[in-house]
Design a protein that fits this description.
Strand content: 15-25%
Number of strands: 15
Radius of gyration: 19 Å
Number of helices: 10
Order of helices and strands: EHEEHEHHEEHEEHEEEHEEHEEHH
Distance between the termini: 38 Å
Shape: globular
Strand order of the largest sheet: 3-2-1-4-5-7-12
Largest sheet: 7 strands, parallel
Length: 308
């Protein structure tokens, strides 16, 4: 297949490219604005990379050459920043997504996968997110993802496109040095001998899923004949105190932790109901949390040595 991946040098994108390249039948085109991520993640992989902004329709159109599938991973993902600047979040997420959908429609792309969010669409009354529940975003970031989902589903119905919106839980793993997610931040701060701030009392829970499991699910869903919303997660949650305890055990470092007040827009309890994806493709998370953290820590240590 000819696959176009937006955000291909980013965290999930780089891991996905490596997994896809194991099958040499795939030709991969990456579109990325280089605002985050790093081309170093893919320095040993031969892929075509277009540097530019997906908000630029004319630029984006030139990147489509016999594309069979679009995997849209690019976007603005910071919840707190979206509250500070909702217009920026809107432009980054909505305009680029609509451009991709429209060009895909015109170029008759067979498959389209959009990376959405599970936790950002939950409200405080529920601790487990299912595809059946009514979304209730707590931040402009969540609202932008929900809006993109609506455009995706409308294009699927209006133009008979095969479109899946994958609601990821909290993804962690290698190739995430540039990320400010809790696992990446914690491991970087350990290596830099810095303090990690926990916003809240540490009892807030997240469904942590290893990036390799996310990528496996994406690949298996590319050609799957289903249009709609699908949760992708581990189906199990841990609180941040448990994360810190496991990090101490794995890294054998004394962690520097401080607590600060809870940040507006972030939810306190989050877990994915993954029964639908389990039914569709028999998906389950192959990495338990401790195994995934160990592999992630090993990558961070190696990357830090090479970087320095």
């Amino acid at each position: 297949m000819n696959i176009l991946i937006t955000g291909g040098i980013g965290f999930i994108g780089a891991n996905l490219v490596k997994k896809l390249k194991k099958n040499n039948n795939h030709k991969i085109v990456i579109v990325d604005n280089f605002s985050t991520g790093s081309s170093k993640y893919l320095k040993n992989y031969k892929v075509k990379i277009y540097k530019g902004d997906i908000k630029n329709y004319k630029f984006l159109e030139k990147c489509f050459n016999n594309i069979d599938c679009v995997i849209h991973l690019a976007g603005h993902t910071r919840v707190v920043d979206s509250i500070k600047n909702p217009m920026y979040n809107f432009k980054e997420n909505l305009i680029g997504t609509l451009n991709l959908l429209d060009i895909s429609r015109r170029k008759k792309v067979k498959n389209f996968i959009f990376s959405s969010s599970g936790g950002a669409l939950m409200d405080e009354k529920r601790t487990t997110s299912s595809e059946k529940m009514l979304p209730s975003p707590t931040s402009p970031y969540g609202a932008s993802k929900l809006s993109c989902e609506a455009y995706c589903m409308s294009f699927s119905k209006s133009y008979s496109m095969n479109i899946k919106c994958l609601r990821f839980s909290n993804v962690y793993g290698p190739e995430s040095w540039h990320k400010d997610s809790i696992v990446a931040t914690l491991f970087k701060n350990i290596l830099k001998n810095k303090i990690t701030t926990i916003y809240g009392d540490g009892t807030q829970t997240r469904d942590f899923v290893y990036v390799g499991d996310i990528c496996s699910a994406i690949i298996r869903l590319i050609n799957y004949k289903y249009n709609g919303i699908v949760n992708i997660g581990a189906g199990k949650s841990y609180n941040l105190k448990q994360l810190i305890k496991k990090a101490k055990k794995i890294t054998k470092y004394k962690l520097k932790i401080k607590n600060s007040k809870f940040r507006k827009g972030e939810i306190r309890k989050a877990q994915q109901d993954i029964s639908k994806v389990a039914s569709l493709i028999k998906f389950k998370a192959n990495y338990n949390f401790e195994e995934g953290l160990k592999k992630t820590w090993e990558w961070f240590v190696l990357y830090n040595k090479k970087k320095n």
